[in-house]
């Protein structure tokens, strides 16, 4: 074949390639497929929710029946939340003092932020993610409804990032788990510790997390898949964090804040696979 012809053909191909590329729409960040969480199937059951000798709002202990559901193995990470912010032109929450680290849990989100994230993810994936209910959350903390003050029994915790000696060393705070060394003064990469008996990580440590419920009083009646008060002023937050002392790390411990309060993180749940 004539060398000049080959050269000219290659040049033509090259130029038409460039022209073609300039007309093919490049995928934007909006078109990227969002990262979806790894979900763990939780087998339902009946358990005793609350703690009669805890805080007043943990009384009365009452029976709750939970149907099978799915919960995310990990808290939503900084990088997952950043995808959402980039795709929706939203600013990230207030950066914590240790900075944004991709595989750490997102923090400083409001309940409304969490709902916006879920709405975006559902729209993009066609899935039906939601926040866990408070009753589901306690069920998972309790390894599927086990009794007891702490999910790890009476010994020191072994698989959660709590207010440990490294937290005291950094902050001089005294409300800590004495003689417990988990190695993280602040947040840890999600899944740094062994999962609980249900296969879920950081459910009672690292950061505290939003539940779907309006905060309300417990009733002594048995309930099935309770979803909290019908309305209210505060939303429920659950699970201990890197800054939580022993009293507030109890399985039944409840927190409640206004839905635009920006501090917790969150994880997703789902009814079906
Ligand atoms: Ca810690
Ligand atoms: Ca957590």
UniProtKB/TrEMBL annotation:
SUPFAM superfamilies cross-referenced by the UniProt entry: C-type lectin-like
Region (Disordered): 226-254
UniProt cross-references to InterPro entries, sorted A to Z: CTDL_fold, Sulfatase_Mod_Factor_Kinase, SUMF_dom, SUMF_sf
GO MF annotations, alphabetized: formylglycine-generating oxidase activity
Domain Sulfatase-modifying factor enzyme-like: 36-270
Gene3D superfamilies: paralog of FGE (formylglycine-generating enzyme)
Protein name (record): Sulfatase-modifying factor enzyme-like domain-containing protein
């Amino acid at each position: 074949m004539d060398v000049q012809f080959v050269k000219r053909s290659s040049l033509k191909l090259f130029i038409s390639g460039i022209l073609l590329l300039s007309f093919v729409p490049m995928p934007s960040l909006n078109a990227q497929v969002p990262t979806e969480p790894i979900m763990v199937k939780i087998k339902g059951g009946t358990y005793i929710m609350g703690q009669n000798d805890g805080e007043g709002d943990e009384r009365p202990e009452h029976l709750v029946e939970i149907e099978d559901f799915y919960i995310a193995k990990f808290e939503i990470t900084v990088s997952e939340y950043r995808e959402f912010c980039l795709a929706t032109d939203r600013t990230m929450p207030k950066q914590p003092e240790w900075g944004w680290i991709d595989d750490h849990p997102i923090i400083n989100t409001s309940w409304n932020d969490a709902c916006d994230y879920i709405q975006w993810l559902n729209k993009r994936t066609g899935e039906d993610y939601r926040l866990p209910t408070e009753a589901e959350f306690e069920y998972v903390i309790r390894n599927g409804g086990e009794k007891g003050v702490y999910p790890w029994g009476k010994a020191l915790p072994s698989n959660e990032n709590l207010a440990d000696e490294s937290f005291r060393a950094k902050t001089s705070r005294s409300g800590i788990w004495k003689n417990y060394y988990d190695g993280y003064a602040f947040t840890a990469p999600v899944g740094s510790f062994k999962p609980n008996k249900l296969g879920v990580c950081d459910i009672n440590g690292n950061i505290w997390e939003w539940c779907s419920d309006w905060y309300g009083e417990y009733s002594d009646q048995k309930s099935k898949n309770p979803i909290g008060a019908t309305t209210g002023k505060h939303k429920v937050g659950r699970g201990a964090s890197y800054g939580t002392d022993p009293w507030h790390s109890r399985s039944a411990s409840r927190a409640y804040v206004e839905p635009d309060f920006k501090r917790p993180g969150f994880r997703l749940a789902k009814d079906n696979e």
